[in-house]
Every structure is written in structure tokens, then in C-alpha cells.
Specification:
The protein is of the alpha/beta class. The chain folds into two domains: 8-182 and 365-380, Glycogen Phosphorylase B (Rossmann fold, 3-Layer(aba) Sandwich), CATH 3.40.50.2000; 198-363, 3-Layer(aba) Sandwich (Rossmann fold). The chain is built from 15 helices and 13 strands. The strands form two sheets. A seven-stranded parallel sheet has the order 3-2-1-4-5-6-7, with helices on both faces. The two termini are 19 Å apart.
């Protein structure tokens, strides 16, 4: 058993991919000052390298393949998956005891279930840190019911990344602590790189993120008087199989709209700061309520004005007309009008950017990590 001078917090995720929740784990764990962090993953993957670079200890307790799968199909499949989950929880419980863990923090839907069960088996309190709206369009009703039941019964405490996420939790909503996602707020705004007028969008290429909406709005803005030299910078890649078709369709759409020559498909980029620094305006165009909207606070912290969809977490972060602009989700015309107006008005962009820098301080990394550690310490006791 490992002995720690500070309470040990195990940050648990089934995935080792470089997606939003996993990158948040790395950011938070590396910034902890009152707990000793260890990240426990259900698979090997690129997140291990990121954690190593940041000096965060990591352990991998590989999950049975059937636990990782999204569907089970048959009754026999349900039985097999249940048995595999129980095997995984027992192995994980032994690992957590060896590590001397005082509190477990679950960070994915699967982890909320198998990590919550493991905490009960091992006698270790669990905090469920929820990053996604439960029961979104297109998700399984059965899975939503299961997750809400697990969140109500298994963790001792719950953290939600926004009021929108908290409201989706069912019986757990009332006891959830709402703590937004942290961002690094640099002392100095990074200088604008390049001279070409640029509108940027950062995010995984998937239909609900709305890159198609941004493309259509950009084409409409060019027709409405946007500087013909302006470029649209799409940063992000498809992470899952279904997203590959959407990524290909975006390129066809750019051709059909006649804007392919002025649209840069940047793909996945590790240096998001540099990508945002190359923009005059950053757009968020999700078509369904975003749980939080990490790129919104990142752009604000870097002194870039933001246009965001008026739903979910971004609508809680941005005050329309003061530190950003909000437009109805999926509304191509409104987004095009905001692009046209702001790209033509340097003073308006500067005012929004300055106000955004002031308001985003409430999401500064040390402040948010302090709030998270308050919950972890109270739960560990």
C-alpha cells in the first residue's frame, strides 16, 4: 500500500483518448495542490503520454472488451457484460487499495457506473464529475435511466460542469456542485499571428458541433459583404467512425458553397493556443446544448472575441453583447450576420475581447481546481 502525506485522489476514466474530459483530467490533476493525484485508465492510449509529460502518475487497469463496447445486443450479451463489469470492478478495487486511494473521481459515463460500484466494493468514497448532458437527443433512453440511477445511488458527491448538465441528472441534480471547466488565463494576450482576416472554430468534427452551420454562415457572410480575403479556420478531426463521413461531407459542402479556396481544414492540433491566436474571431456553433463549451472560455482567456450558440454551457458563460455574442443554435442567418458585423468592426471586437478577459477569470485554473479539491477533501473525510 502506498502512503501519501495528502489524501490520494484517483481520477478514473474508461478512455485514454485525447478528448475533452480526458484532457481536463490531465489539466486538473497536474494542478492539484492539496491532494495527491493518480489517473487510472481503462485502456492504454495517448493520454498516458500527456500525463507523463505533466508529471502525473498513471495506472492502467484494462477493462474487459465487452465493458468498453457501447451496445450488447442480446440478453446473453447483457449477462456477459454484467459479469465482465463485476470482474473489472474487483480488479480495479484491488488496484485502488494498492495505490492507497482515499477518494475516487469518475469522469465518464462508463466510469460513473463501474467506478461507482468499485468504490462501494473497496469502501472508498466516490465523486462523480459529470461532463455531459444526460439524455441528449440521439442517446439511448435506457442508458440515460441507468446513468441517472447510478449517479443517484453510487457516488457520495456529484460535480456538474454547468447548470445545464446538473439539470439533466434527475434525482442527483439538487446535490450537484456546479463547477465550470478550468482554463489557463495568461498574463499577456498572445499576439495575433498572420495578417489574413480569420474566423476560427475549434472542436471535434461531428454533426452536433455544427461545423456545417459555420460553413454555411461563412458563405452567407461573404455574400453579405464580409472581406473576400477572410478565411475560415476549422480546427479538429473526426474521433469516431461515424464522424469520418461527416468530415468528408464538410469538404464537399465547402466545394458546393464555393468557399473551398478560403477554408482551412486544420485537422487535430495539439497547440490549440496557437490556433486560436491566429484568429480575429472564434465561433462556437453547436446545434444542441453544449455541456460546457471549453473552447469558449479558452478563446476568451486568450483575448479573442467569441460568437456562441445561445444554449447550454456557453449561454451560462457569455453575457450577450458584453463579453461575447450569442446567436440561436443552428441559425445560419444570425451567425452570418454576427460574422459580418464583427469582422468589420475592430473596436467592437476589442471591447468584447477585453470584457471577456475580465469575466473569464472565474474559470482560471487555480480557482477552479481549488473548488474541485474542496469537494474531494470533504468527501475523503
Amino acid at each position: 500500500m502506498t502512503i501519501h502525506t495528502r489524501p490520494c485522489a484517483a481520477f478514473l476514466s474508461h478512455s485514454a483518448a485525447l478528448s475533452g474530459a480526458e484532457l481536463l483530467i490531465a489539466r486538473v490533476a497536474a494542478a492539484c495542490t492539496r491532494t495527491t493525484p493518480v489517473v487510472v485508465l481503462g485502456e492504454h492510449g495517448p493520454l498516458e503520454g500527456v500525463l507523463a509529460d505533466r508529471g502525473v502518475p498513471c495506472a492502467v487497469v484494462e477493462l474487459d472488451r465487452s465493458v468498453q463496447q457501447h451496445t450488447v445486443g442480446t440478453t446473453s450479451g447483457v449477462v456477459a457484460k454484467t459479469a465482465a463489469t463485476l470482474r473489472s470492478t474487483r480488479e480495479l478495487a484491488r488496484a485502488l487499495r494498492r495505490l492507497g486511494v482515499d477518494v475516487v473521481v469518475t469522469h465518464s459515463a462508463k466510469a460513473h457506473v463501474y467506478g461507482g460500484l468499485t468504490g462501494r466494493i473497496a469502501g472508498i468514497p466516490v465523486v462523480a464529475h459529470v461532463h455531459d448532458v444526460v439524455g441528449t437527443a440521439g442517446s439511448s433512453r435506457a442508458n440515460a435511466l441507468l446513468l441517472r440511477a447510478a449517479l443517484a445511488a453510487l457516488p457520495r458527491a456529484v460535480i456538474a460542469n454547468s447548470q445545464t448538465t446538473a439539470a439533466s441528472l434527475g434525482r442527483s441534480a439538487r446535490r450537484a456542485s456546479v463547477i465550470g471547466c478550468p482554463t489557463v488565463v495568461p498574463d499577456v494576450v498572445p499576439p495575433r499571428t498572420g495578417t489574413t482576416p480569420t474566423i476560427g472554430m475549434v472542436g471535434r468534427l461531428t454533426p452536433w458541433k455544427g461545423q456545417d452551420v459555420a460553413l454555411r454562415a461563412f458563405a452567407a457572410a461573404r455574400t453579405a459583404g464580409l472581406d473576400p480575403a477572410a478565411r475560415l479556420r476549422l480546427v479538429g478531426a473526426a474521433h469516431f467512425g461515424d464522424d469520418e463521413q461527416f468530415a468528408a461531407a464538410l469538404r464537399h459542402l465547402a466545394d458546393a458553397l464555393g468557399v473551398a479556396e478560403v477554408v482551412d481544414f486544420r485537422g487535430h492540433r495539439d497547440d490549440v493556443v496557437a490556433e486560436i491566436a491566429a484568429c480575429d474571431l472564434v465561433v462556437h456553433a453547436s446545434t444542441r446544448p453544449e455541456p460546457f463549451g471549453q473552447v469558449v472560455v479558452e478563446a476568451m482567456a486568450l483575448g479573442r472575441p467569441v460568437v456562441a450558440a445561445d444554449a447550454g454551457g456557453p449561454a451560462e458563460v457569455v453575457t450577450d453583447g458584453e463579453d461575447g455574442v450569442l446567436v440561436p443554435p443552428g441559425d445560419v442567418g444570425s451567425l452570418a450576420a454576427a460574422m459580418t458585423r464583427l469582422m468589420a468592426d475592430r473596436e467592437a471586437r476589442a471591447r468584447l475581447a477585453d470584457n471577456g478577459r475580465r469575466s473569464v477569470v472565474r474559470y482560471a485554473l487555480p480557482h477552479v481546481v481549488g473548488m474541485i479539491e474542496d469537494v474531494l477533501l470533504a468527501t475523503a473525510r
